[in-house]
Request: fold
Amino acid sequence: MDIIANYGTTLVLVAALFGFLMAWGIGANDVANAMGTSVGTKSLTIRQAIIIAMIFEFAGAYLAGGEVTATIRNGIIDSNAFADTPDLLVLGMIASLLAAGAWLILASYFGWPVSTTHSIIGAIVGFAVVSIGPEAVQWSKFGGIVGSWVVTPAISGVIAYFMFISVQKLIFNTDDPLNNAKRYVPFYMFLTALVICLVTIKKGLTHVGLHLTDGEGILLSIAISIAVAFAGWIYIRGQQYNPQDDSKMHFANVEKVFGILMIITACAMAFAHGSNDVANAIGPLSAVASIVAAGGEIGGSSHIAWWILPLGGIGIVIGLATMGEKVMATVGTGITHLTPSRGFAAQLATAATVVIASGTGLPISTTQTLVGAVMGVGLARGIAALNLGVLRNIVVSWVITLPAGAILAIAIFYVLQICFS
Reply:
């Protein structure tokens, strides 16, 4: 209690600095979820991807990042265990922000797409064990986290595999791919719009003031998707293609259509991602601010101060602009060669898996989901189409993310205790 009473303002300022660093790491690493495949397929240049993602990531974080956030991220630790020692919780949350942010920036430097959620969870668990003891951690949560390393990439990989196989069968492996594209692409547009509407409604609009039941959300999504499919059908019919073009030119024209779909999907995923993953940075920061404001009293939830959401949104944008390129390259070109149709299948599978997880409560990492989807698209062309060396490095980075976050948080926690003792 004495630490909070004597250093309250300083603690909030330090937490804000480290929260900004964490948001920076999120922007540098997780942007691959929204933009990596678009860049890899050359649907967007890196500069265009950064500009689009900056707009939609910030919009998602600021407009739909939430008015209320759980004090303890994902309920991974028992806040009641810190009731008599709130200063330990404040120092631990600050240590967790710096530890997770530092790990994300390091991973981004090497181009490893890792989970921001797992980074902050590992950090929080690390300080909780050394400050209170193992009993402060809800270990049952870890089964879902470890299982997500296998389950979510597998789900998205299977969806992406069959999505791309269907595109091949119905369009590319036919005698007239261009006419078949005109016939079937509106259906893919319907699916795309449906999935991204469901993702956005489930993840991004609750705190904008649009409160929809599941049924209303589904009906609205279907209505919007039908309108998109109809507009797409009109657009494709209106395009003039030379019937004398060879098959390569027909394929190129078809890929252009999928390129447009990819850009639309990427924008929606960036908005949903900004609205969701900004909580990894502002959750612990909001906890520190609320505990200090309450004089050490730990509440179950906290209203976010007006300055916290913009801080998180700006941090994500700066991280993306300064360090996002390497992770985008890993996802977009490092795992397998992507074309717009392949990238579309991967992006749609990622969004679909997010919808499935939201409905079932399955704990997922969107990064791991996207990597699994890109793998699924690669496997559709055979195991030789995958860069196994890159995949090995990615999987290793996933496994060490939890302990890396924990070890860094423990070291920083002890340093902070010395500094504020």
User: Anything to note?
Assistant: The radius of gyration is 22 Å. The mean pLDDT is 84. The chain has 15 helices and two strands. The CA atoms of residues 65 and 81 lie 28 Å apart.
